[in-house]
Amino acid sequence: MRITGQMMTQKLIGNIQNNMTRMEKWQRDLATGKKIHSPSDDPVGTSYALRYRSELAQNDQFTKNVDSANSWVQYTDKMLDSATQVLQRARELAVAGANDTQDVSAKRAIADEIDQLYKQMVAIGNSQFNGAYVFNGMLTDQKPYEEANAELATPHAGVFRYEIGPGTMLDVNTLGRDAFGTSPSSDNAFQALKDLRDALINDSQPGVANGISQVNNRINEILEIRAGIGARMNRLDLAENRLTDIDLNLQTLQTKVEDTDMAETITKFKIAEDVYRASLNTGAHIIQPSLIDFLR
Amino acid sequence: MRSTFFGLEIAKRSLFTEQAALNTTGHNIANSNTPGYSRQVVNRVQTPSMEYPHLNKPAGPGQVGTGVEITQIYRVREQFLDSQYRNESKTYGEWTSRSDILGKVEAIINEPSSSGIRTVINELWTSFQDLSKTSTPDAAIAARKIVAQRAVAVAEAFNHQSQQLNELDADITESIQIKVKTVNAKLEEIQSINVRIKELSVLGDIPNDLLDQRDLLVDQISRLVDVKVTEANSMYSLTIGGNVVIDANNAVTTLSETNPVVTGGEIKGLIDAKNIDVANYKNQLDLLAQTLATGEVKMKLENDYTIPNGVSVRGADGTVYNAGIVLPKGTEILVNGLNGLHELGYTMNSPLETGQAFFVSTGGSITAGSIRLNPDMLTNPANIASSMSMYNDGTIDRVVQGDNSLALMMSNLGNALMTFTDASGTVNTTLEGYFRGIVAEIGVRSETAQSNQYNAYVIASQIDSRRMSVSGVSLDEEMANMMMFQKAYAAAARALTTMDEALDVVINRMGLVGR
Fold this sequence. Notes:
The complex is a heterodimer.
Chain A lengths: L4 H28 L10 H56 L5 H22 L2 E2 L2 E2 L27 E5 L2 E4 L4 H5 L8 H13 L3 H54 L3 H26 L9
Antiparallel strand pairs in A: 1-2, 3-4
Helix pairs in contact in A: 1-7, 2-3, 2-5, 2-6, 3-5, 5-6
Chain B lengths: L5 H25 L9 E7 L3 E2 L11 E2 L3 E8 L3 H31 L7 H16 L4 H66 L5 H17 L2 E6 L2 E6 L2 E4 L18 H30 L1 E5 L4 E2 L6 E3 L4 E2 L4 E2 L4 E5 H6 L16 E3 L9 E3 L1 H5 L10 E3 L4 E3 L5 H7 L6 E5 L2 E5 L1 H41 L3 H35 L6
Antiparallel strand pairs in B: 1-4, 2-3, 5-6, 6-7, 8-13, 9-12, 10-11, 10-13, 14-15, 16-17, 18-19
Helix pairs in contact in B: 1-11, 2-4, 2-5, 2-6, 2-10, 3-4, 3-9, 4-5, 4-6, 6-10
Main location (chain A): other
Pfam families (chain A): Flagellin_C (PF00700), Flagellin_N (PF00669)
Protein name (chain A): Flagellar biosynthesis protein FlgL
């Protein structure tokens, strides 16, 4: 084949261009730490990368939801703990009041204290978490219990849920109806406390005994509900662990698809750089001499 | 009897020939870097010899040479390589412009990134999740403001991409026009060169440099369009896209600037990029925006739902349920996108009212370019519905604000399967799944275009280098030739001098006897 100067020059320019393009690609991968810069770099990888990104964002949101659910549930539990303490105190007072050795004025004093406990119980029933009434179902903006006649109140029965995993819902709120009893009903917490108070005022021995059993029933009911809340907290813990695992998995997958393998890329870059230098060097030698330089 | 001065004639012919060869070498060196130049070679032949004169018989012992003459100065060129080169140049041009435009589309898509359409849609879903967790009026308004901002971001992302695509489309149209103008101008040039070549050829001349120029022009056109050359009576006739643009009578039919008919080259690449790549992506983006707002989707009720007045609901089997009917939690219903879903719920406003369309259009049907958040929701975020139940507070109906079931359903719209029908068929996937598909499709197209471009480049440059091997000027070769011609010239001059001296003897020193 006949070789001409123009041919060699063009080939040289083309080769140098190719080498530079290759170096530029590795350089970009190294400088950004990413190997996908636009979809055409790796169409399949891009589609995976997009999915991992979305799933990671969703996972973050679920983790936030778990946290919110956790604080709501824990708050409810704390309130129900207080309710139990109130009822236990009422039972202690009632047992003392049931004793015949107490005179009428002492019983009145006990009745007064039980009335305070009733008010305390109403306050618990109206407890708010971040400004929302926790025991009023979905009507979180409405106060469920009126102090005058809390035993007659029918709180809202709507259960709302948070999403704590893809398609996984968790009931967040505890219904006032379940925690404090339905109305009218003898084991309604407010009814029980009012009955107890009235029995003490009226000095009715059987009334007090009856009231104590009502309170006992309510304490047991609340304990059952709290057992349910405990189970929910366990579920939230599990969900949180699972979300953490998924997060780690997704990040690993994302890194594999999107991130530059530094060791490999630096090696490739070095090779490309050597080839580039070689092409420049040979270029400098090829272009220089021709017959003209030797004719005198 | 031969002429006394015959030797002078031979030497003169030799001098002229070598001089012409030297001039041609000079011309070659001068044009060694001229685009399209083919090296020229002087074709020399012996002049007809004649009988050697003899005393006895006319037929001598041999014939005597009479010197040299130039028959032709021709250019070294292979037509076959030209047509091969033009064929590859056409393919290279087509994929160059196609991959260039696809690269721009990829830049518009801007994925994978943390600010593309995927991200903003995702943030809309998570803002609905946050809304689902707010139960007090204050927090609910704050969360709604965030939902509204996220929705604005979604609409703007769509609008922005749509606008960029429209601009790209206009740019392509303009650049097609410019390239067609270039082709048309070159056609006119070829026509005028055709005329001059014809004039000179008729006289028996070979206008090498005009031939080179004409071939160069065809080479240049071949990158822009598919051009086929036929030569008759030393004139070129050209066809582009199957239509004759320069006919045998040298009449030019220019290409249409608005709708050029071509089957290859940069112009074809631009037309395809416009009509296939950009148009497809535009349609897909429109479809995505439309489906997000109003695409039919099957959703599961997150709470018992009493159908409000003025609303009717379609069950999964198509049964229509009217106002007053109670659908239990878990019932599957069909709704029309985010808008249809939103219209099922109650806003936070009092008196009680149901939701309006979430996304609206700035005019006409909803497209990527026209989609925007219902302005009422931006001015008053309370217009965003998240609840699906109401109660009567003794005097009027009110919304149950703590009911988050609609917010949950709206946030889950992103995970629901929807139907998308575009140029490549019908798919059942999530909104994001469809978007991922679009991105991957553009990626594959662009990748293919790039590799096609590279392959065509390699082949075209190989052929071009074959052409340069044949037609290119080698300075070494020219130098060697120059030495050779120069020496021959000097020798011819010496021969002339020798003849001259021989004649000097005859003319000046003979016949002096007896003087």
